[in-house]
Amino acid sequence: MSEVHTTDVAIIGAGPIGLFSVFQCGMLKMSCHVIDALPATGGQCTALYPEKPLFDIPAAPGINAVDLIERLEKQIEPFKPVIHLNQQVTELEKIDEHWYLSTSSGLKIQAKAVIIAAGTGAFGPNKPPLDSIEQFEGNSVHYMVQKREDFRGQRIVIAGGGDSAVDWALSLADVAAEVYVIHRRDRFRAIPESVAQMKALADEGKIELVIPYQLASLEGEGDKLKTVVVKTLDGDERRIEADHLLSFFGLATKLGPINDWGLDILNGVIKVEPSTCATNIEGIFAVGDIADYPHKLKLILSGFSEAAQAAHAAYLIVNPGQALNFEHSTTSGVPTL
Amino acid sequence: MTTLTFIKPDGEKTTVEATNGATVMEVAKENDMPMLAACGGSLACATCHVIVDEAWYEKSGEVCEAEEDLLDTAHGLTNTSRLCCQMKVSDDVDGMVMTLPPMG
To answer: N or C: which end of chain A has fewer CB within 10 A?
Structure first.
């Protein structure tokens, strides 16, 4: 069944600061496992602004976010970190001297110290705040589409105004019985040719653009959707009979289970002692955007420094009673693990 | 000194002092308002969405296309929805009232 991985340090979050924490721990000969909810490393750099250049990374002027992540991955390669993607840490508990982390995929990790580098939380679909939406998830409400064929002959409501909404409206127009696109305004954030195609399909009556409407509520029985209720800003209501809702509002982050671990959290950030990045719980450190202290600057630059502070403080917990020789990398080189 | 009033999702009203030139998002964060403002004002998310009191909306400034695009991903939009990282504090908005939607 589920084996338990053992490591010196478990790092929650594989964004730039989580990755650089691997480096700082590695320089002190501590092994690391890293967990991230996204299917790729990079956190916000990958999910929100991959092609945007960063200008404030020392000695890397105008580096693209994805390139920064690629370089960080190369930098930590010698330390052979084990990176577990596509899963969220759901539980963290201390038994005797060890921390045990469980993930949404059933993975278990035993660690001597934990570094939380979770940014603003785990990325997931940006769900519309409709009361009953969770009741329909898994059957009638979808945040991504795996197989187009699943929707053959079905009545589909697509909500959103970006690429996903437009692309799936085009793709499903041929197979679905009915396709409705709900959007709050006439402009779509998508490739102009695709938008033009979608509008042409609407003119032909193959799909219907329901504009300017927003989702208001969902009705149905059990996990089977029956009606999507939409409203204009002026309160005009329309009821659309439908079998499925495809909700495409991009990604959003949630702290989720981190809130339940007894950490000192206010408005989504964890209070730390800046000289060590120690949280209020011994053995748990927080670095990067999620770590807060007076005059905190939410910069990747600050996060890199926090990773170093946390690694040095974690060393004393991972290696109790052992001396920590402070060395520059020019002296130590890159140790092998 | 300019003042701004935030109405929290639970209805509690807080009036705070703000320095001209700051963004409304910065003022909200400084005063520990329940707001994520995940991207830190770089126009990459919609987690600083506020609903500006109708009387103040005209004075809250122009809404650029990039802000409109991101508002597409906010929920519970109104005719006076703004991303408050795009609003600057000035004498023009002295006394402005905004409602914060639930953090989700």
So the answer is: N
